[in-house]
Design a protein that fits this description.
alpha/beta; 2-enoyl-CoA Hydratase, Chain A, domain 1; 7-stranded mixed sheet; about 50% helix; globular
């Protein structure tokens, strides 16, 4: 357990819970490091099913914009790069990954949801991809591979809210369950996860091309984040958001 995530391991299933409900589970540097370490540990401890969920009203409201006034462009870019590396680790993990999303699922939090192999709505949810409003390209390629390029560009370009029903229809989410159905769902997924060993699942992931675009995705992010004025663009975005 850390101050940002809770980790509960039961045999071959590891459940990782985002635990900053007072901050909308926004992705602080500490939370990203904790998630990265959890994935590394699961690669070594025999985890067959990795469950990602969240405490509180929202799954994840995106990148933590706290202390933005003291940030520099380079420091912010490094944080976004670490998020992309985390997303890539999650995407190609040699175990079955499932995200249980609810409430608001925004920006880097939506990218975290998309990176999982199975994407389930655990109640009402809505999505938004606002990063392009401050010039950042994070997760767009991953989203496009999940829902198609045209739809991904429309969602990212408009920055509008996407309902749970629309997310299900587009394939962004694959299922929706009530609270009572979560435990049976996880038992079914655990049976699927333990069917293959880690080496076989990793080879299957590679054969399916889940790591094929990693360099392209990282390059797109770095080029967008390296444009001068990143901090100022984010400050302007935050100010505009607070006014609406």
């Amino acid at each position: 357990m850390t101050g940002t995530v809770r980790i509960q391991a039961r045999g071959p299933m590891t459940r990782v819970t985002l635990d900053r409900p007072d901050k909308g589970n926004s992705l602080s540097a500490g939370m990203v490091s904790a998630l990265d370490a959890a994935i590394d540990r699961c690669r070594e401890d025999g985890t067959a099913l990795f469950v990602l969920d969240a405490e509180g009203r929202h799954f994840c409201t995106g990148f933590d914009l706290g202390n933005l006034d003291a940030a520099t462009d380079d420091a912010l870019m490094a944080r976004f790069v670490r998020i992309e590396i985390l997303l890539q680790k999650l995407q190609v993990a040699p175990f079955l990954t499932v995200a249980l999303g609810h409430g608001r699922i925004v920006g880097a939090g939506a990218d975290l949801f998309v990176a999982c192999q199975r994407r389930v709505l655990a109640g009402d949810a809505s999505f938004r991809f606002p990063g392009a409003a401050f010039g950042l390209v994070l997760g767009t390629g991953r989203l496009a591979r999940a829902v198609g390029p045209a739809r991904a560009c429309e969602w990212v370009g408009s920055g509008r809210w996407i309902s749970g029903d629309e997310a299900l229809a587009a394939g962004l989410a694959q299922d929706v369950v009530d609270e009572a159905d979560i435990a049976p769902l996880l038992q079914r997924l655990l049976a699927e996860g333990t069917r293959l060993d880690g080496a076989t699942r990793g080879a299957m992931q590679a054969a399916a091309g889940r790591e094929r675009h990693a360099d392209q995705d990282l390059r797109a992010l770095v080029l967008s984040a390296a444009r001068p004025g990143l901090c100022e663009r984010i400050r302007a975005f935050r100010a505009a958001t607070l006014e609406t």
